[in-house]
UniProtKB/TrEMBL annotation, chains A, B:
Official protein name in the record: 2-(3-amino-3-carboxypropyl)histidine synthase
Annotated function: Catalyzes the first step of diphthamide biosynthesis, i.e. the transfer of the 3-amino-3-carboxypropyl group from S-adenosyl-L-methionine (SAM) to the C2 position of the imidazole ring of the target histidine residue in translation elongation factor 2 (EF-2).
Species this chain originates from: Halococcus morrhuae DSM 1307
Cofactors demanded by this protein: [4Fe-4S] cluster
Known EC number: 2.5.1.108
Keyword Metal-binding: yes
Family statement drawn from the similarity comment of this UniProt entry: Belongs to the DPH1/DPH2 family.
UniProt keyword annotations, A-Z: 4Fe-4S, Iron, Iron-sulfur, Metal-binding, S-adenosyl-L-methionine, Transferase
Keyword Metal-binding: yes
InterPro entries cross-referenced by the UniProt entry: DPH1/DPH2, DPH1/DPH2_1, DPH1/DPH2_2, DPH1/DPH2_3, DPH1/DPH2_euk_archaea, Dph2_arc
Length: 349, 349
């Protein structure tokens, strides 16, 4: 996701990743030093999420102190907002490659994934969330989900709720998800549980909004331990934007169909099918999907088969309507308007 | 080069690439169709420079009409401002890959380079340029250079000048350049000739400004057949910006040293040397070097070992001073201020 100029909900700078206490992240330097030693590595690549890139120099300093002089530490300057944003160039060109802050998207001997668990205490915010959750005497069923950086507290959250008589429903989701109860910006299969309410514990609104879009029948309670606020996910503004984009695209003659070349985002068959069936559709391949890159294409609308969050969250920043594959089917009249649903990746690689 | 928001001299939209007459570009469809046939290709990738991306759909339509139904045409959405911007992902994933509008940067059986020569008549602008060139009776020596898209008229230009008693000096330059008399944004070795004046025939000021920076002792006459204007390259504004950036960087503690991963821009040894000698320098690797990507790094200044034109032309758009490797040596006190010179690539790959 590219959140470049404006600060908005969902922006990583509004999550714990950018808070003052990040001095306390555990970068697991021992594991890195050990891997360098074992492999007699000469080049070590480090990739941080956007919100932690500014920590790169300090981590480099700490590593340099502990590594032999002839080992070179490289920082990835590629955009990094999620597990898909693996710097594959750096991965190929370094002997040890460390990706911080996301779950593994691709397993390899060469990659070290350092999860960067948050040290934020979740109990106070769980306490606050009771105001928004149903009374367990009336409706004890509640789903529980969180993000990679709070996974270390997941059992603590579950126990806390169970001790207050909730019947906590959790699920590992599909193979795209590493942990039980984990959500990704593009995958909420861990919330496919038998409860009308889901408690999301984590920073920002980016994940819970996706969750609420994917599960419009569920009430999504946001317990944000980072910004210390409890709220209910409200998808109305999002939905209006989506319907607006679909309507504006209904008159489109020329369609640009985007195939994203990033690992974990490739839905080539879907992109190809659209182009096969529509003579006015053109296949465009790219890694970063940004407004600048699409401006020079003379298209009336775009369908993005890559990251759905680029479409739904960054959509308004593009000069022409940008739709998900499902929304495209509505815009060209293949599906009815009320079939509009959130676009997610289920086990796609 | 990324010229996204503002229109300025050097912008490709101000060159022949974006003019109305581009219907007349020769896309060499026969060559492409033949290659598809020979290789029994199923996927054809097309990469256009930014200024011609809007022509992609029409070229795709023309190709689809002539190719078997099961051949898929893909358009590259990667930024493309020069020969370095080869879409290597697309190159690997297609059976035939066509790069339009630039000279070959990497030779491969799979790549078809279509030069897209301009059909603009150069004689009227040569006539106008006589007002700025020295009288051949007094000083007949003149260098002659042009860009890839006007190479088809190079002999015509030379003959025209010789018929008017000029002694025309031309040179192939080094191995980075494909043609005699050709300049690239990063290489002006073809102007290393024995003449005090150089005539540049081509669109825009991007190339002649680089040429004048590289050869401050020569008068560079710009004959622009696209915008129909003759002028003299004036580097004063550029030089002021460069000195300003160097001065601002003199107080820098933390340096980001950029290694660009693009084909033809890799000066790793240079980047590594800086990091080796400066404990406060950190190696950052990336493909597109943009202000957004560097904003999250907590650096005081940057040294760019990649495309020098990002540094000199886009420099002011970055939040911190961005220097060339030579300028860095001045800023840290290794070289005197008057050693400032234009950064170019000579045969670097």
């Amino acid at each position: 996701m590219s959140h470049t100029s404006e600060s908005k909900s969902g922006d990583l700078t509004k999550t714990g990743m950018a808070l003052k206490h990040d001095r306390e992240w555990d970068y697991e330097l021992d594991r890195i030093v050990e891997a360098v030693d074992e492999r007699d590595a000469k080049k070590v690549g480090l990739q941080f999420p956007e919100g932690l890139k500014r920590r790169g120099p300090a981590v480099t300093d700490d590593l340099r102190e502990r590594l032999p002089d002839d080992v070179r530490v490289l920082l990835s300057g590629q955009p990094c907002y999620g597990a898909c944003d693996l710097d594959t160039y750096m991965m190929r060109r370094t002997d040890v490659f460390v990706h911080f802050g996301h779950s593994p998207m691709k397993e390899s001997d060469k990659i070290i994934y350092v999860p960067l668990f948050s040290n934020v205490d979740v109990e106070p915010i769980l306490e606050d969330s009771l105001n928004e959750l149903a009374d367990p005497d009336e409706n004890p069923d509640v789903g529980l989900v969180t993000t990679a950086q709070h996974m270390n507290k997941f059992e603590e959250m579950r126990t806390w709720l169970e001790e207050r008589d909730f019947d906590v429903h959790t699920r590992r989701g599909d193979e795209r998800l590493t942990h039980e109860g984990q959500v990704l910006g593009c995958n909420y299969a861990s919330a496919d549980i038998d409860a009308d309410q889901v408690l999301y514990v984590g920073g920002g609104k980016f994940h819970p909004l996706g969750l609420a879009m994917e599960h419009p029948d569920k009430r999504v309670v946001i317990a944000d331990p980072v910004n210390n606020a409890v709220s209910i996910a409200d998808t109305e503004k999002f939905l209006k934007q989506r319907y607006g984009a679909v309507h504006r695209a209904m008159d489109a003659q020329k369609w640009g169909v985007i195939f994203c070349t990033k690992i974990g985002q490739g839905r080539y068959d879907q992109a190809e099918k659209i182009v096969e069936e529509n003579d006015n559709a053109y296949l465009i391949t790219m890694d970063e999907v940004t407004p600048d890159r699409l401006r020079n294409f003379d298209m009336d609308a775009f369908v993005n088969t890559g990251c759905p969050r680029i479409t739904t969250d960054d959509g308004p920043r593009f000069h022409k309507p940008m739709l998900t594959p499902g929304e495209y089917e509505i815009a060209v009249g293949n599906e009815p308007l009320d079939s509009l649903s959130f676009d997610t990746f289920h086990g796609t690689w």
